[in-house]
């Protein structure tokens, strides 16, 4: 799957600010919340994002 510039910015934010809300990410990136959520859903569906939250052993 091709990752464009917006996807890259989204992924960077998810890594750098993992506890931020989708609404705040949308504000930071100057995109609609629905657009951001659709992008995150697509990244999850295609396997670019494989999980969220802490990983415990």
Describe this structure in words.
The protein has helices spanning 5-16, 22-29, 33-45. The protein has 57 residues and is mainly α. It has a single domain (5-45), classed as Arc Repressor Mutant, subunit A, CATH 1.10.10. The longest helix is centred in the C-terminal third of the chain and has 13 residues, at 33-45. The chain is globular, with a radius of gyration of 11 Å.
Shape: globular
Oligomer: single chain
* H/E topology pattern: HHH
Question: What is the third-level CATH name, the topology?
Answer: Arc Repressor Mutant, subunit A
Distance between the termini: 30 Å
**Major beta-sheet overview:** none
CATH class, anyone? Mainly Alpha
Q: Mind telling me the C-alpha Rg?
A: 11 Å
CATH architecture: Orthogonal Bundle
Total strand segments: 0
The helicity comes to: 55-70%
| Low confidence ranges | none
Brief summary of the model shown:
The protein has helices spanning 5-16, 22-29, 33-45. The protein is mainly α and 57 residues long.
Q: Any chance you could write out the topology, listing elements then pairs?
A:
Blueprint lengths: L4 H12 L5 H8 L3 H13 L12
Helix pairs in contact: 2-3
Question: Main attributes?
Answer:
single chain, mainly alpha, Arc Repressor Mutant, subunit A, 58% helix
């Amino acid at each position: 799957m091709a990752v464009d510039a917006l996807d890259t910015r989204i992924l960077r934010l998810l890594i750098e600010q993992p506890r931020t809300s989708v609404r705040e990410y949308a504000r930071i990136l100057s995109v609609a919340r629905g657009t951001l959520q659709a992008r995150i859903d697509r990244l999850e569906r295609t396997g670019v994002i494989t999980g969220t939250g802490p990983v415990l052993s």
